[in-house]
Amino acid sequence: MWYGLVVLIVASTIAKYGSDAQRCSCVTGPPDHLCPTAPLLQVYLQHELYCTRYYKCTDGRAIEFQCPYGLYFDTVNNTCTCDFTLCYRTDPCIQFVDSCRCCAQQFDNTGLAPENFYVCYNDGYAVATTCPVAFDPCTGEEIQLQFVNQKCEVPPPSTTTDSTTSTSTSTSTSTSTTTTTEEPIVVV
């Protein structure tokens, strides 16, 4: 009887505390990794917990702001609005990433598109994340940031050119002489 009681207590303790393993992010603090270092770009980020708060990227850092009372952050228009449905969020995509075990890495983007990466958790799982789109007020363009050197940054300049060079060959013949002329034609 006494032995059975001890086994029951030990089993219930293991069941209680063994199943309560906490999943903790390997990244702490504000999401600075989502903010580009380019100073003029405008980037706003959804707060990870509260729909009444948001982050604005300033000089590569995520600075937290709060909407006025009764307003909620709209991630499409980057403004605070009275639409409460903005508080409804979809569940994040979490999957196992071996390189994330025990926080061996904070991020991993092996084999993913340049703008996508994983934010690691201590248990080897990770949440799929996409770099935000930045607005450049100087050009009026939106720029899809890419994950470079553990941070979302402006994509590096492209090494391909848009112009194509082709060669045309013209041949003319006469009774005694053949002339071949090659002229490069540049298509712009």
UniProtKB/TrEMBL annotation:
Pfam families: CBM_14
Record carries keyword Transferase: no
Organism expressing this protein natively: Anopheles stephensi
Keyword Phosphoprotein: no
CC annotations in GO: extracellular region
Keywords: Signal
Gene Ontology MF terms: chitin binding
Region ranges (Disordered): 153-188
Full protein name: Uncharacterized protein
Signal peptide positions on this chain: 1-21
Bias (Low complexity): 159-181
